[in-house]
Amino acid sequence: MWHEQEANSLFGFLGKSLVPYEPAPFYFKYRYETDDGVREGTCQDWEIEATFLKWQRRYGEKETLQKMSDRFGAEYPKKGFVLAMGTHKAYPQWLINGVIRLDRGIENEIQQSLFDA
Fold first, then answer.
1. Out of the domains of life, which is the source (predicted)?
2. For the whole model, what pTM was predicted?
């Protein structure tokens, strides 16, 4: 039997007023290459949408789209990043669930550390 304090800590948010989800008016996509060809995927990362919405309020739509392109389309690839991929029962293809920045070269260090004793 759940104790009231444990139940409230797990489910207490249900009684609170939540901030409604505000989707960005654009889809953010990445084009990437795999062994079997070039793919394109829509990024499902809520942080990308949140960045757009915050910057749009600050800079306006046109400047925000340029800043998004500069950050996620030029800076991240230059410095290194990986796409967090996954699937979902409702969609029969891979989805981009997140974008993780890595400093160039660190990915080899991380990969190697997986095998070091």
1. Bacteria
2. 0.68
